Amino acid sequence: MKKARWVILLFLSGFAGWYFYPAKSLPQRSVIDKLIVYKSKRQMLAYQNGMLLKTYTVALGKNPSGHKQYEGDCSTPEGKYTINDRNPNSGYHKNLGISYPNATDKINAKKLRKPAGGDVKIHGLRNGVAGYLNKLHRFTDWTNGCIAVTNDEVDELYEAVKPGAVIEINP
After folding, report:
1. What's domain 30-170's architecture?
2. Is 61 exposed, middle or buried (CB count within 10 Å of its CB: 0-12, 13-18, 19+)?
3. Mean pLDDT of all residues in the chain?
């Protein structure tokens, strides 16, 4: 019985260390001009002038495989877009707007006779109690098609990502 207690204590200690250990910050005065998302790896890479600055672990839409086809399909789009908006007062802890849908997305949605949708964002956690989830949100894909990071990470991105930065979202 003592061995089981030690195993549980060791697990809880490791978990607490992971949960509370702060992530590496971006270098001061970073200006992110490109983001590359790899949906299959749940990673978003931040670049300045071709140099990798940081890799973020992300959560995606509840239906993460494949390209977003229409509004409400809970998929995260794939393709090349830009960061076209910033909102410090959304239902989530800040967000950066992604220029979805582009012309190709609109044509494809029209073929399906569905609205292409919009409002795809990089955002933090839902305002209120969800902020306490911190890194735990990464264990499942939970958004309606957006790219989610922790609140601290979206604060960092909000300051560092330049308007019009390219975001490339890959399968």
Report:
1. Beta Barrel (2.40)
2. buried
3. 88
